[in-house]
Each structure stands twice: as structure tokens, then as C-alpha cells.
Amino acid sequence: MSKRLVAKKMFFTKGVGKHPHNLQSFEEALRQAGIAPFNLVRVSSIFPPECKIVSRPRGLAELDPGEIVYCVMAETRTNEPSRLACAGIGLAVPANRTHYGYISEHHGYGLTTRRCGDLVEDMAATMLATTQGIDLNPETAYDERREIYKAKGLTINTRAFVQTAEGDKNGLWTTVVAAAVFIC
Whole-model pTM? Predict the structure, then answer.
């Protein structure tokens, strides 16, 4: 029988990197985020039941260099001066922690930290709500939808973790990353 791989802990991290070469700017962003020494495997967007969120320092202390590490990552790169790059991770956890939640990611341009955060929180909460049979009008404001969640008995706890940066004024590659990193 094979061992089941379900994360027991997760932490958030983010970073910015700048360099004349695209790939090295990505590496610098991973270094700032503290996750460069791992073999990162991107996974989709399920927050495991009963998974505990820990601080970045505590999470990093549980990982070893070279380890294969699963994460949901948002990443944006630009070499256009002053172009606003954003990478955001949203999380929606149901009140009943024995059920799974959702993690969303957004990679893009032109969104402020707040707008990107609102977007990823909304996406994660909407994905979670639809698994509970709540059909929502996407045109309804997120604040109104939160009231619908409460009225239907689905209290959702959400959060966002976002990194933004303006493209380097001298045209260096600028990379932003945000990640939800799993500890199995």
C-alpha cells in the first residue's frame, strides 16, 4: 500500500528579485522568499483538511536543502520600466476544518497590493462556496457574497498574501513571487 501524501502544515512567503537576466531575477525572488534551496513542485489549489498554517520561519526550519517541496505559486516577471507586476495567493478555509479549502493564485500586471489581495481572496472564497452548492452571481460584490455565505451557514475564513513591484527603471528583469508552501 502506498503512503498518502497530505500536507499537515503550510506557510506563506513572498519575494522580489531584480537582475539583468530573466531566470536570475526569478532566482533572486525565490531567495528573498526563502525557498530557493528547494526543488519546488507546483500543485493545484486545495488546502488540505486540518492543515495548520505556520509562520515562515517555523516552516522553513522544517525543510532541508534539496528537498522536494510542494507549493502553490504565483509569479510575474517584467523588464518594462515602471510596469507594476503582482503575484498573489488567496486562501479560503471553511469553518469546519475537517473539510478542504481552496487556494487561489493570480499573476498579472497593474494591480495594487490591495486590489490583487481582494481578487485572490474573492477567487478562493468563490471556489469554496461553489463546492458547498452556493451558486453565486459573479457580478455581485464580494462583500455581499460574504453575507450570502454567512446566511447559508458557510462561514469562510479568508486571507491573501501578495507581492507587488514596479519594473526596474533601468530595464532589469523584475520578478515577484508569492507562494503557499506545504510541509508534508
Answer: 0.91
